[in-house]
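Predict the holo structure. Ligand: glutamine.
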Amino acid sequence: MPLQNGPKWIVVTGGVISSLGKGIVSSSIGALLKMRGYSVTAAKIDPYINIDAGTMRPTEHGEVFVTFDGGETDQDMGNYERFLDVALPKYHNMTTGQVYRDVINRERNLEYQGKCVEVMVHIPQEIQRRLKMCAENTKADFVLVEVGGTVGDYQNILFLEALRTMKLKGAPMAFVHVVYLPTPKTAGEMKSKPAQQSSRELNSIGIQADFLVCRASEPIDDVRKEKLSLFCNVYPEDVISCQDLNSIYDVPFLFSAQKFDELLLKKLDVVPNAHTDEFKKWEEFIAKKNAAKESVRIGIVGKYFASGNFALEDSYISVIEAIKHACFKHSVKPDIFWISAQDFETNKKEINVLQTCDAIIVPGGFGASGIEGKILTIKYARENKIPLLGLCYGLQLSVIEHARNILGWNDANSTEINKDTTHPVVDILPEQKKKLETNDYGASMRLGNYPANLVKGSLVCKLYNNEEKVVERHRHRYEVNPELVSQLETKGLVFSGMSPDRRLVEYIERSDHPFFVGTQAHPEFTSRILRPNPLFDGLISAAIERKRK
Ligand code: GLN
């Protein structure tokens, strides 16, 4: 039953250290509310000046998550979409840059009618306007608001001020403060002092946490609970354990075992609905995940290795999660194998490690580095009949590989890499070229949802359950050269999906291979826990088949 007097607000803040998984905490709360039949939406506040995440390096910021309406947003938006099974509009990811830009634009338009426009009051007002828009447009019962950064940062103070005054003016709001309890080796026990201090820091801004979510290596014990309750002014049952787990998808049930959802609803004066079918479906998903014994090895040919495995996983987070969704559906465990594209360029013999992969993914990317290694990988997968899925750049490089090694166009390339190639099989569209000439880089790619018509009877069409019209999210400037399409589509290469005007190649496959699929889109963004994306689903089925042979 929907709420009569919605929306209710749940604000998630972080303390002590960054990278606590506030996004997973927010998403897990949202998932639990959805399992009780409420509609839930989420908004992420990022205190940086960038208008969006689109201009940041993946190693700097992690993956850029693309929304259906073409937003280049924070990777937490992906967590919300996956856990809540929603498609969020781009304005649900707010940055300091957007807030100031809009206030300044309004001031220039005389919309403040001659008033002195000030940081204090006009900026929090704009933040509130944007948050209310998230609630009004989605009509959700609950709006989750995650405040990026850590309480005590200068950067997020105006956002917290906006939320404090929103509550003061009557918005029903619960504050969840996520803290960290370290266990220093020398102390030999879990320490709660940093959590106490960050909770006081929040108090100094005028906000009292209603709940403390305690991130730690182990569950927190009763002694710590009592202490935190007493010193942070929170009831002992509202101190929630959130120890490290093997899988992020176990967090909702860790919370429900502590009745976190019921306590939250009580705090917001809502009598909890009973669980819907979605609860059962989640339980089944978790049971399948836990029962999976057999693993399949999925090689990802990456190029952001310079900053270590951690940044690497952040850069490809939606791809990794899409692999997991498909694997758990088939009750197998993903064994993700990171392949550095550059390694094959320096040592050609290394390429034989690909033989150990049950499937390979060539993910999206930009620029020239690692490109030749990726092309070698595609050649190997084609010749050795290893299932392959090419995402965006992966499709473009598969076409280059075909042109070079099968058609004999030795210098075939993308003009992104070699402007002077005599065979520009991947080229920039004229409308994109203009943008680059004027340094128009922000939010200027071909972004968001675009439709494609699939060829009836093709593998891709079968994977999409025989749908002949599909829509996926995009983020790219270059395309398979429309002028060369007819010359390229020969000797095994099939263009199995085109844009409705038939100008742009959207999907490719090979007729001489068990599973060789490429898409100009990013299907990883639409994969959901209970609904794996069809292309990933197909890849994992092919991987299982190869493994069992
Ligand atoms: N660099 C390529 C382009 O801009 C591919 C982009 C991507 O993989 N997202 O077209």
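The CA atoms of residues 280 and 513 lie 39 Å apart. Residues 364-366, 392-393, 416, 475-478 surround glutamine (CB under 6 Å).
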